[in-house]
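Teaching soon. Got one?

===
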Amino acid sequence: MAIRAALGATIAYAVATLLELQHPIYALVAAIIGTEYASKETTRLGTHQLVATAFGAISGTLVRTTFPPSAASAGLGILISVLACYVTMPDGVKVAKIAGYLTAIIILDEGQEPFAHGLFRFIEIALGIGVAWLLSLVPNGRERMTFRAASARTR
């Protein structure tokens, strides 16, 4: 996992920088957060992480356009996005943190127009999750050993 997380973070940051995205650091962080110990788990949760990212972007944007930035508005937005994950996805508990952290970023960062802020953060985070997902298609060392052992037993 350590190698996949480090490689994913490096690739996500490099690609985001190449694409001249505003904050490549969000792609880097998302690649780390999106990497699970078992490659199969990263692959399985990838779609749910993207949905959680969308919930976070939408919730953050809606709350930020309705209320001024504050701890209370951030709390409200986080509650909405995390509950949306819990209610709509079987693995919502595992991915809700992504929604919550993106919601808070959009609400509390006063530097940009909320819709643009939500869109750019969604793109950056989706890039990081996508890189983690692609790297999860390569099994880690322990998974390769388990596969070889299982293959040997079936012969």
